[in-house]
Design goal:
5-stranded antiparallel beta sheet; OB fold (Dihydrolipoamide Acetyltransferase, E2P); Rossmann fold; 6-stranded mixed beta sheet; binds adenosine-5'-triphosphate; 359 residues
Length: 359
């Protein structure tokens, strides 16, 4: 059997005049935990609805286990969805909610009871079957919604911001539980979140979305440490995006920024001397240099301290804002100071490289 469980091929969708999905392509492996990460309105929920069959695409194909299900009814796809708002039936007990789809399938009562109790054990709510949804906390309700979604063992579980309604502490606890559950059941999870930390913590791969397209698909480490575009670098981990000109000294590539040469680490691309290059450098990797020879000259504009992190906003000689962050308080730098900043070449990633530069 193929390792690929789900493929989206050139999926396009418009609502009225608005092109919401502009040609999505992705292959998802059996048992994978993949997260769609992107800002509000970029098309995440529409993508899940097309996978589940609640929405049809205008063109393109949805292939589930090698079969084209683009026009198949939701009930005929081995896919379930967990929504942010739980969507439990309020007038039914927990057991009746969890066993609802089994009852529709005319499974015998004794068997339903057994499967429901097993599902409640998996989500760590054994013995809660007789309660009503109103007698549960938010976290417990979401566990019931998950039990209901896994009771008929779908091949793929779609989770649309399932932890969005929970407070931070419960959210963290449920993140760990969901990951455990996914490993235990071996079900493919396609997960939506706005929260980059959640995506980085939980996923095998992340698909970063922008305006109805996947901007980059990769492991959390690919996305965080090797972003391919300035959009991914600034959306995930808020990197500084700095533009300069390619310059070569002794065969090594540097960035010329307002006459200063800063090191960059790029061996896989052949970049013409003098062409514009864009570097992404995370705020914690910006160094404050003693040597003013080859760094970027800046003025300190603002210094704030929050949650154990010092955040220094500086303006470069070309008027660009750069953020520097540090653990703890540094009393040596003050608003109005002139400083010189730089970075180690291992800490910088070139983004938005043209394909023609590839070696
Ligand atoms: P959020 O994170 O806010 O949930 P999202 O990335 O999931 O956003 P979608 O819900 O997929 O985004 O919506 C994408 C775009 O499509 C939005 O501009 C939305 O207004 C529009 N849209 C979604 N459903 C419909 C619909 N049924 N009719 C018209 N426009 C729609």
């Amino acid at each position: 059997m193929s390792d690929i469980i789900l493929q989206l091929e050139n999926i396009k969708k418009s609502f009225g005049e608005t092109d919401v999905l502009k040609g999505l392509n992705i292959s998802i492996s059996r048992g994978e935990f993949i997260t769609l990460l992107g800002p509000s309105g970029c098309g995440k929920t529409t993508t899940l609805r097309i996978i589940s069959g609640l929405e049809t695409c205008d063109s393109g194909s949805v292939i589930l286990e090698g079969e084209d299900v683009t026009f198949t009814q939701p009930n005929d796809r081995n896919v379930n969805t967990v929504f942010q708002n739980y969507a439990l039936f309020p007038h039914m007990t927990v057991s009746a909610n969890v066993g609802y789809s089994l009852k529709l399938k005319k499974m015998k009562k004794a068997e339903i009871d057994k499967v429901v109790e097993e599902a409640l054990e998996i989500v760590q709510l054994p013995g809660y079957g007789k309660r009503m949804p109103s007698e549960l906390s938010g976290g417990q309700r979401q566990r019931v919604a998950i039990a209901r979604a896994i009771v008929n063992r779908p091949k793929v579980l779609l989770l649309d911001e399932p932890l969005g309604a929970l407070d931070l502490q419960l959210r963290r606890q449920m993140q760990i539980e969901l990951k455990r559950l996914q490993k235990q059941l071996g079900i493919t999870f396609i997960y939506i979140t706005h929260d980059q930390e959640e995506a980085l913590n939980m996923s095998d791969r992340i698909a970063v979305m922008k305006d109805g397209l996947f901007e980059q698909i990769g492991t959390p480490s690919d996305i965080y440490d090797r972003p391919k575009t300035s959009y991914v670098a600034s959306f995930v981990g808020s990197a500084n995006i700095i533009k300069g000109k390619a310059a070569y000294v002794g065969g090594e590539l540097f960035m010329n920024y307002d006459g200063s040469l800063l090191p960059v680490n790029e061996q896989s691309a052949r970049i013409p001397e003098g062409s514009e290059i864009t570097a992404a450098v995370r705020s914690e990797y910006i160094l404050i240099e003693d040597d003013s020879q080859n760094g970027i000259h800046c003025t300190v504009k603002e210094k704030t301290f929050s949650a154990g992190m010092l955040r220094i906003s500086v303006e470069t000689s070309l008027g660009q804002e750069i953020i520097i962050s540090r653990h703890g308080i540094d009393s040596h730098i003050n608003t109005g100071d002139s400083i010189v900043i730089g970075w180690e070449k291992e800490r910088v990633v070139l983004v938005d490289l043209e394909d023609s530069y590839e070696k």
